[in-house]
Amino acid sequence: MRVLVTGGTGTIGSHVAADLLSRGHTVTAYARTRSDAHRALLPELGFIAGDVTDAARTREALTGMAAVIHLAAVTAPGRRPTLDLHAVNVTGTLNVLEGAVGAGVPTVIFGSSGAASGFSFQHRRLVPQYLPLDEAHPDRPQDPYGLSKLLGELACRGYTDAHGLRTICLRINHNWILSRTSAEFVTSAGLYQGRSIEDLWQERYVKCLTAPDGEWPVPGPPRPAHLLWTYTDIRDAVSAFALALGAEHLHHEVFAINGFDTCSLAPTAELLAEHFPEVPCRAPFPDHASVVSFDKATHLLGYRPRHSWRESDFHDWFTSLGSRSVNCSPIITTAYPVR
User: Fold this and answer.
1) 3-state SS, residue 81
2) Which of 85, 89, 211, 230 is least surrounded, with the fewest CB atoms within 10 Å of its CB?
3) Which tens digits make up the pLDDT trace of 175-214?
4) Backbone angles phi, psi at 112, to 5 degrees
């Protein structure tokens, strides 16, 4: 299958492209730039230089493709002014959808975010109506990024209804890179180019575990409680895109994609008693079970997360620091019920 990956030289995009290439697909990245280091890591990956804000160029890039995985985005609030963020995340998504219709591309897989629910970058405190959180829960984003992702999902639904496009929206929740192998794109050709994986882990993940209720920058990264302590190993996120690509029986769906456990040292029951004692729970939360349900993705896509930070290269490094005690007991995924 010929697949275009917008944002295909970014962190998630690079991993998705590499995975699809390993599955025998012909993959082309559509992005503004591509470094020599990235080209050396994925020499078989095609490349088209362009920007999703350029409607004509985007349609041209889509010509002859069987599917597009749309990951190009401004990835958090505050990284660009609001209108510039929406030009990329909302108008850019519309350009991809319009281009797909015009070029006869039947499938669009949209890289959405858990931020579409509203919890990640909340300005005023949001309390879930129930837990575990699922795709039926009302969405109330208060920030430009979360709003842009929700609008992208709504646009996908509209293009499915109006034009028959197959649109699958994957809400990736708090992407973590936990294996040294997965970190190669980030440290060799991505956000942390020229730095070490330990730098990434120290700056991005250690604080979540050791100082979750400390001071966090505004607008982000969000404090773990706002994320409902979710995270997703990038290998599990990548698997969701491959599953969505092959789910030809689906027309339009939105799926929460995350790990089966939390990014917290505290048991889930303790977290909920402290932060959300008033929220009704529709299922038990043993040990460190996630409070965001991926049940829908399991039943309709076959998605099951297989990776935990508690059994990872990151975990081995973290515990070697002599940090406060971490639960090192083996993780048995069946202990965390699908909800």
Assistant:
1) coil
2) 211
3) 999 999 988 888 887 778 888 999 989 988 999 999 999 8
4) -90, -160
One-letter amino acid for residue 141 of the chain: P
DSSP state of 253: E
Domain total of the chain: 1
**Residue 211 maps to which CATH number?**
3.40.50.720
Q: Terminal CA-to-CA distance of the chain, rounded, Å?
A: 33
Residue 144 near residue 202, CB atoms below 8 Å? no
Residues 6 or more apart from 336 whose CB is under 8 A from it? 260, 261, 286, 287, 289, 290
Instruction: Give 134's Cβ-side CA count (13 Å radius).
Output: 16
Q: State phi, psi for 28 to the nearest 5 degrees.
A: -125, 130
Q: What range does the domain containing 34 cover? A: 1-339
**pLDDT per residue as tens digits for the range 75-134:** 999 899 999 999 999 999 999 999 999 999 999 999 999 999 999 999 999 999 999 999
Rounded to an integer, what is the distance from CA 266 to the centroid of its chain?
A: 24
